C-alpha cells in the first residue's frame, strides 16, 4: 500500500502524474487471446487496463481464462501460412530441425511431427526410439 494511510483518488491521480504514470480502462472488451507456441489462453469479457509509465504501456487483463491447445484455434499464423502456400503440415523450420537432429528423411520427419501434434523435440525422440527399438 501507499505510505501515509488512505489517499483520496484526486491525490493518487496527481501523484501518478508527477511520476509519469497514467491508467486507462479499455471499455467493451469482448475477448483477449494470449497465444503461445502450443496453447491459447482465452479470456471472455475481461477487464483490461492500460498502465503507461514514462511512455511504456503495460496491459493488465483480469478475468478467468480457458486454456486450449493451439491446434484447436482457427486462423492461427501457422495454419494461415500453410493454407496460403497450398500445403498443410508442420512449419518448414520444424521439419528441417527434426531431419537434422534425428537424421531422418523429410517424409519421416513430417510424419513424426504430425504424430506429436507439431512438437519437434517429441518428434525427434519418437524417430530415435523407433530406430533404437528396431535394433534390439
Walk me through the structure.
- The chain is α+β, with helices and mostly antiparallel strands and 136 residues long.
- The protein folds into 2 domains: 9-72, Nascent polypeptide-associated complex domain (Ubiquitin Ligase Nedd4, Chain: W, Single Sheet), CATH 2.20.70.30; 86-135, Orthogonal Bundle (Helicase, Ruva Protein, domain 3), CATH 1.10.8.
- 41% of the residues lie in helices and 26% in strands.
- It contains 5 helices and 6 strands, in the order αββββββαααα.
- The protein has helices at 9-18, 77-85, 92-102, 106-115, 120-135; strands at 21-26, 31-35, 39-44, 47-53, 56-62, 65-69.
- Strands 1-4-5 form a 3-stranded antiparallel sheet. A 3-stranded antiparallel sheet has the order 2-3-6, with no helix packed on it.
- β4 and β5 form a beta hairpin.
- α3 packs parallel to α5 (120-135) and α4 (106-115) crosses α5 (120-135).
- The chain is elongated, with a radius of gyration of 24 Å.
- The termini are far apart.
- Residues 73-86 have low confidence and may be disordered.
What's a concise summary of this model?
By secondary structure, the chain is of the alpha+beta class. The chain folds into 2 domains: 9-72, Single Sheet (Ubiquitin Ligase Nedd4, Chain: W); 86-135, Helicase, Ruva Protein, domain 3 (Orthogonal Bundle).
Amino acid at each position: 500500500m501507499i505510505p501515509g494511510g488512505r489517499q483520496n483518488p484526486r491525490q493518487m491521480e496527481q501523484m501518478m502524474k508527477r511520476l509519469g504514470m497514467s491508467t486507462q480502462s479499455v471499455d467493451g472488451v469482448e475477448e483477449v487471446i494470449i497465444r503461445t507456441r502450443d496453447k491459447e489462453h482465452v479470456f471472455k469479457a475481461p477487464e483490461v487496463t492500460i498502465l503507461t509509465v514514462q511512455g511504456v504501456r503495460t496491459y493488465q487483463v483480469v478475468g478467468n481464462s480457458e486454456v486450449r491447445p493451439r491446434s484447436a484455434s482457427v486462423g492461427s499464423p501457422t495454419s494461415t501460412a500453410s493454407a496460403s502456400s497450398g500445403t498443410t503440415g508442420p512449419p518448414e523450420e520444424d521439419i528441417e530441425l527434426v531431419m537434422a537432429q534425428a537424421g531422418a528423411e523429410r517424409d519421416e520427419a513430417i510424419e513424426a511431427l504430425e504424430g506429436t501434434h507439431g512438437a519437434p523435440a517429441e518428434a525427434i525422440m519418437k524417430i530415435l526410439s523407433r530406430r533404437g527399438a528396431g535394433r534390439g
